[in-house]
């Protein structure tokens, strides 16, 4: 083993191809996500909300008859629709990211499933600890054999 360990065997060309591929996917995702629109409308179809990734809420369409609602109900309906439009947009973005990166590499899926990710990190840490303990035990055994 060289003094640089596995870094001496690093395939720079492969690393560059992976980096270029990831960069191209990120560019594609950015371009395609700009076209996404989240929609929501009230049950009576008198209030409609549209939002986009780049601009947030872009359109609120209110039928004049909706203005007859009590102010508190109107405000609550509008807040709910904004939330639903954002949720619709988020779902579309999640689908696009899965399509672009694959289900296992979707950054949004990772964010949404932080508990599972944390468990994987803890499993990896436990494996590392076991490997380190085994290596130290082996070094200790060799040291004793050599009388050190």
Question: Summary?
Answer:
This protein is an alpha+beta fold.
Ranges where pLDDT stays below 50 over 5 or more residues in a row are: none
Helix proportion of residues, in percent?
A: 55-70%
Q: Report strand %.
A: 5-15%
Main sheet overview: 3 strands, antiparallel
The value of Rg in angstroms is 27 Å
Total E-strand runs: 3
Which structural class fits the helix and strand makeup?
alpha+beta
Q: How would you write the strand order of the largest sheet? A: 1-2-3
Number of helices: 4
In quaternary terms, these chains amount to single chain
Give the ordered list of helices and strands. HEEEHHH
Mean pLDDT: 84
Distance between the termini: 24 Å
Shape: elongated
SSE arrangement:
Blueprint: H1 12-33, E1 37-41, E2 47-52, E3 56-62, H2 71-101, H3 107-112, H4 114-146
Antiparallel strand pairs: 1-2, 2-3
């Amino acid at each position: 083993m060289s003094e640089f360990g596995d870094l001496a065997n690093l395939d720079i060309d492969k690393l560059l191809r992976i980096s270029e591929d990831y960069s191209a996917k990120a560019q594609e995702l950015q371009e395609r996500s700009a076209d996404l629109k989240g929609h929501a409308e009230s049950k009576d179809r008198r209030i409609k909300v549209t939002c986009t990734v780049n601009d947030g809420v872009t359109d609120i369409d209110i039928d004049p008859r909706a203005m007859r609602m009590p102010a508190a109900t109107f405000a609550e309906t509008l807040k709910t629709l904004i939330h639903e439009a954002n949720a619709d947009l988020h779902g579309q973005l999640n689908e696009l990211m899965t399509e672009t990166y694959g289900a296992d590499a979707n950054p949004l899926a990772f964010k949404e499933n932080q508990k599972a990710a944390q468990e994987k990190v803890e499993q990896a840490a436990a494996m590392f600890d076991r490997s380190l303990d085994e290596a130290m035990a082996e070094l200790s055994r060799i040291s004793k054999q050599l009388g050190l």
